[in-house]
Amino acid sequence: MLLVNMSGEHFFISIDEFSDLISYKFDIKSEIFKSLKSKFFVFSNSLEINLGIELLANQIRSKQRYLLDFTSLHMVEITNYCNLSCDYCHASAVSVEEKSLKNAAELRRNILDKTIEKIFQTPSQSIKIELQGGEPLVNWESSKYLIENSYNKGLQFKNKNVEIILCTNLTLIDREKLQFLKKYNVQISTSLDGTKELHDRHRVTHSGKGSYDTFVENLELTRKILGHDSVGALLTVSKSNLPYLKEVIDEYTRLGFNGVFIRALNPYGMATKNLNTLGYSIEEFIEKYKKILQYIIDLNLKGVYFIDYYSALLIKRILTPFSTGFMDLQSPAGAGISGVIYDFNGDVFPTDESRMLARVGNDMFKIGNVLDNSYEEIFQNKTLQDITKKSILQTTPSCSSCAYNIYCGSDPVRNYVESGNIVGFKPDSDFCKKNMLLIEHLLEIIKENNADVMNVFWSWITKRNLGDVRV
Fold first, then answer.
1. How would you write 48-91 as a 3-class SS string?
2. Whose CA, among 64, 227, 279, 352, lies 20 to 30 Å from 417?
């Protein structure tokens, strides 16, 4: 069986040993007792208790370090127009061809200025600004304005480190744009669904033409100008590529990516409308995920450095006392207090998913507008306070008694979509089921304690080559 304490320390113990432990029959000189004491599960005297509580508190503070940063990720929707028509699009982007850009719902300069003003009022010393869409390059003038002014604003703060990321499908990128992005140290986040056949099945233009060939051509150009490591890619797993994840990973490695974030479909936007053709059960997803995780581990053991980023986040939470900063794996939820998104009209939402809900008519998660509200009014909004209070797993029904709660997180917006309230009903939650099954699987691997596999895990956590970790 597994023991987990409040700071995330874990220990595998037999049922007989656990029975002896709770019956106070353990020999305090035994190796098991010493191990349990080193992980702050037990103490043998009052002095150890006082010291242990202080050390345990330090570990908990480390886990919750992200709360001190407060809103380091700022996502800005430059436009809701896009040149592609992906059938699983969470953002419910609008076709460029539907209206002239003259009448498009674009970010106005005054909204951009107010957005930048709000971003730099955050107390966080590390600020990540993400340009999103639609496709931001459709509105290149506003993209340039936001990038240049954010970069220059960041230079005014000696204590703030500013990172700018452009989320783009790469099909509209060109040499001139890339030279501009290089000047301001902009990184690229893009999407790749696997091989040409798999990618072109969903990521197509509004006329139905696949985007893979243009993507690969512009990927090469982007790396040539910005540097090879300047581009990261996200994978959306649909029914089409779920059976072919091995081929997907092979395509990622062939194209020179050193990792992948395997992202399941979320119940938003077009993904919901097309669920019958795109969807699958969480059990199916986890079954395939386990197999591809082993395949990725084997690749690393063969000398191919490649990270499964989601597993790496969970492993870091299990094996170290440090915060990961990933919004979906935080308690209280990272919504608003770790990341926030500014819509093209200045509306502010705690998560990208809550903005997507507003796109289809439900703006219950809106926390303000950059033109109408001050920083304090936005980030002390009652809706955000309610989300924070009700997303603490240690006080949430079902989660409070779950041994994995310190490794997991809360997604209040998804809870609302699935159950009608932000707390959610965990027995029916796909988010909960996915994380529980995956955490359980990772703990089983960790319990086996295979030296080679653990070296792979530590190489992911420390972002070092396997050979360096082995040394």
1. HHHHHHHHHHHHHHHHCCHHHHCCCEEEEECECEECECCCCCCC
2. 64
State the number of CA atoms in the 13 A half-sphere of 321 facing the CB.
14
28 Cβ neighbours under 8 A, 6+ residues apart: 44
Count of CB atoms situated within 10 Å of the CB of 48:
13
Question: What sign results for the dihedral spanned by CA atoms 221, 227, 228, 233?
Answer: negative
Other CB atoms within 10 Å distance of the CB of residue 229: 11
Report the chain's C-alpha Rg in angstroms: 23
Each residue's pLDDT, cut to its tens digit, for the chain (471 residues) gives 999 999 999 999 999 999 988 998 888 889 999 999 989 898 888 778 888 888 888 988 888 888 888 999 999 999 989 999 998 886 655 655 544 444 444 568 999 999 999 999 999 999 999 999 889 999 999 999 999 999 999 999 988 999 999 999 999 999 999 999 999 999 999 999 999 999 999 999 999 999 999 999 999 999 999 999 999 999 999 999 999 999 999 999 999 999 999 988 876 665 566 667 788 999 999 999 999 999 999 999 999 999 999 999 999 999 998 888 788 999 999 999 999 999 999 999 999 989 988 888 899 999 999 999 999 999 999 999 999 999 999 999 999 999 999 999 999 999 998 899 999 998 889 999 999 999 999 999 999 999 999 999 999 999 998 888 875
Are 402 and 328 spatial neighbours (Cβ–Cβ below 8 Å)?
Answer: no
Q: Please give the Cα distance from 256 to 135 (Å, whole number).
A: 24
CA distance 193 to 233: 9
d(CA 82, CA 79): 8
Helix (H) or strand (E) holding 3: strand 2-4
Number of residues in the chain: 471
Measured CA to CA, the distance from residue 374 to residue 399 in angstroms comes to 35
Report how far apart the first and last C-alpha atoms of the chain are (Å, whole number): 32
